[in-house]
Amino acid sequence: MKKILLIIPFLLLIGFVIFKVFKKDYVSAEQLKVVTSYLASDELEGRETGSVGIEKAAGYIEAVFKKNNIKPYFETYRNHFKWGVVDGYNIVGYIEGNDPELKNEVVIIGAHYDHIGMAKKVGDDDIANGANDNASGTSAVLLMAQYFAAKKSNKRSIMVVLFSGEEEGLVGSNHLAKTLKEKNINLYTMLNFEMIGVPFKDRDYTAFITGYELSNMSDKINEYSGYKLTGMSKISKERELFKRSDNYFFYEAFKVPCQTISCSDLSNYDYYHHVDDEVDKLDFNHMADFVNKMIPAIKTICNTPTKEIKLNNE
Q1: Does position 97 have pLDDT exceeding 60, yes or no?
Q2: Is the CATH number 3.40.630.10 carried by domain 10-303?
Q3: Angle at the Cα of 106 from the Cα atoms of 163 and 131, rounded to 5 degrees
């Protein structure tokens, strides 16, 4: 295994992410690589829920939130849950909307930041670093949150959630969905980002949306972005990936469009839950292109006068 050398100290990593000046694009491939490389480093030991490694990942995410003045939604950033005897926590930030009425409606952007820890040994390597699954999605959400926190252009409020316990059966997202339902939040939609680090080679879109047929989310994202950015994956439907990601329990609780956006339906990446799911397998130019097209779509989702993304049975 090629060990990732953490040449840049932790605080400089944070500083690099925060103070990079946006020019032509909203985010750069370099930014995404820096964040993903830390989250998928050997130091974090595969980010298993309840481990020392995931505590380091949580601290990193919290530091990004603090530097960007993203407030905690609860008393702290941590939304605690139990998985057996293990203590887990989602990290939840909040970017309040700037419209007196629409700010009461919430858009969730999320990704799971946990992974499986150790996996079957290959050579002398037994750390499942989880670069694509899901340091890639986590990095995208952090950089999108940075953008929205800086611009303060969102009329609706944005809840930024990094989930833990996903690999244990969506434990963290199940807990948070129930908690928010009890608080009776006005959830408009949820966009969950999962495994976005490698491109498809045989599709006319960049990413697929799980539960494609349930809503008009894909059509609206394409309309808002101006690109054929998303589409339907037959493989995703066959494998019921809609029910296997953190969007699912939000859909069950709120019955609004809550879907996962992904660039891997397990057909175009050979290292799912494998120790070779490493940063050197990812295409950061692809990731940057995807995120830069996704940000205008999310901006429009947050700013339309009415809720245009709807379930198809409405």
Answers
A1: yes
A2: yes
A3: 25
